[in-house]
Every structure is written in structure tokens, then in C-alpha cells.
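Let us work through a complete example step by step.
Step 1: write down the sequence.
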Amino acid sequence: MSFLPPDEPQPGCPLCEAPGGTPIAQSRLWRVIRAEDASFPAFYRVVWREHVAEFGDLDAAARVHCMAVVEAVERVLRQRLSPTKINLAAFGNVVPHLHWHVIARFDWDSHWPQPVWAAAQRTVEPAPLQRLGMPLQELDEAVAAALNSLS
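Step 2: predict the structure and record it as C-alpha cells.
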């Protein structure tokens, strides 16, 4: 899948200039990538293609559509992985381009119960990817299928 940048990219914005991770699916409004994080292999981002900083910058229809994308990713992670919790976050403190983090969390993960950005609480053995119970490619394909049904 080729990277589809915003129609009016913001110079210097990493999410305008590059996918931001492994591309999973995209439309003319959004893209979903999987973050490259060995500690949290089921860490996805919903990136709004238009360079806006805040969720409230979107009109009502776009907000509904954006959250439908976030929910579709969450639903697949819950159905396929049965995580302890799903973390949703939209900070934008470092990259002020609207994007949502959708992260499957487990009570065995290295940072549980702290946020993924906190200090690790433990070493995880076997590795998190092995503990997921399914190959990432299969998970990515399930996420992509759910997102394609939205388009």
C-alpha cells in the first residue's frame, strides 16, 4: 500500500511526511498503521489525513467517521486478542497532527497497569509477540478487513 499524504501537508510534520508505522489500511480521510513497538505489538494508530491538531477541528460528520474507525480497530483487537484492556489516547503533545492510539493491553505486559509511556514494571518472557496468540500479519489482515467494510 502506498502512503497517501494529506492534500495540504504541514512541513516538518512526521505524520504528513511519512506513514508513521506499518500501513494497514487507508481511505481518502484516514490511515491506520501499526506502530513498531516490540513491547506492545498490538499498538495501532488511526491518523486523520488532513493536518488538524484537535478532534474538535473536525466537523460533526468527520468526528463520527473518525470514531467509527477507532472503534473498528478496537473491536478487532478485543475479538481476536481478548486483552485485559484497550487503551485509547489522542495526545498530540509531541506530534500535533490528529491521531488516535489504540493499544491492546494485557495484565502480563511490561508496563501493566501503568501507561505504555511509563517505566517498565517487569520483563516479559516469552516475548510479547509470542504471547499474542496469533501472527501480526493475521491481526493486521483482520483490522484491514474491518476497516474496508467502513469504506
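Step 3: interpret the result. The radius of gyration is 15 Å.
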